[in-house]
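User: Let's play a game. I give you a shape written as tokens, and you guess the letters that built it. Ready? Here's round one.
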């Protein structure tokens, strides 16, 4: 008899929310990933630094109020039973650095975030957190663009697309995308990393591998990834080539 194949899971999923309807959708995607891949989900909300500074004399009360608001938001977005199992964390500070620091401290397997897809001044406020995470986080980031639909049962479905560019890291990028397919237990298709691929309909998820890079190159890669995500019609999982994705789950003896 053939042995039960090994699968990969994600131990820790971190979802950043800002109480918007779009971040509620991102939270539902994060909950879907956590349920399917056996990981623990944490929702984090970062309190506006200007509000925190104005109430510096009682910053603890501000965070406690935000914690209660976050727990209520999670229950509303996921339903009472599902929301009760989610860890809620509220912190004061700049959103990007706070999310990054928490993810590194807790060794998050993946960060899930929504992006509003805005430009100009609005993008500075809503897009800066996403772009900061893409530029500085070396782990996978699951970005939920504004135009994608709600997660369906069994998401991402039977197959995903790897958006891979030509160049010296082509084979390594394919290998990184293949590991993602193993994590999610789906087939993998390959397409060029172009705006046309980002806009393609009918796929559950696009994997966007980024080659290993120094700090300055990571900044440029993060901006390019953000532009790709902004035009996407489905969730985009950004992965760094060479970064470990998921952990092996050994089959039980009973299986």
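Assistant: Ready! My guess for every position:
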């Amino acid at each position: 008899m053939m042995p039960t194949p090994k699968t990969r899971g994600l131990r820790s999923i971190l979802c950043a929310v800002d109480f918007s309807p779009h971040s509620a959708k991102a939270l539902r995607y994060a909950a879907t990933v956590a349920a399917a891949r056996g990981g623990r989900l944490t929702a984090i909300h970062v309190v506006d630094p200007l509000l925190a500074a104005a109430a510096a004399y009682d910053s603890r009360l501000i965070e406690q109020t935000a914690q209660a608001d976050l727990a209520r938001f999670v229950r509303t977005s996921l339903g009472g039973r599902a929301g009760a199992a989610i860890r809620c964390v509220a912190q004061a500070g700049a959103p990007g650095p706070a999310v990054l620091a928490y993810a590194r401290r807790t060794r998050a397997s993946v960060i899930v975030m929504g992006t509003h897809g805005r430009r100009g001044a609005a993008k500075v406020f809503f897009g800066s957190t996403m772009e900061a995470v893409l530029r500085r986080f070396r782990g996978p980031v699951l970005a939920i663009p504004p135009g994608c639909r709600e997660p369906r049962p069994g998401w991402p479905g039977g197959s995903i697309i790897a958006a891979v560019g030509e160049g010296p890291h082509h084979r390594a990028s394919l290998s990184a995308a293949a590991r993602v397919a193993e994590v999610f237990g789906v087939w993998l298709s390959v397409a060029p990393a172009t705006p046309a691929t980002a806009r393609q309909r009918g796929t559950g998820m696009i994997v966007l591998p980024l080659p290993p890079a120094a700090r300055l190159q990571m900044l440029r890669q993060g901006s390019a990834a953000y532009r790709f995500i902004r035009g996407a019609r489905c969730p985009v999982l950004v992965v760094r080539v060479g970064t470990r994705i998921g952990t092996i789950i050994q089959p039980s003896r009973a299986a």
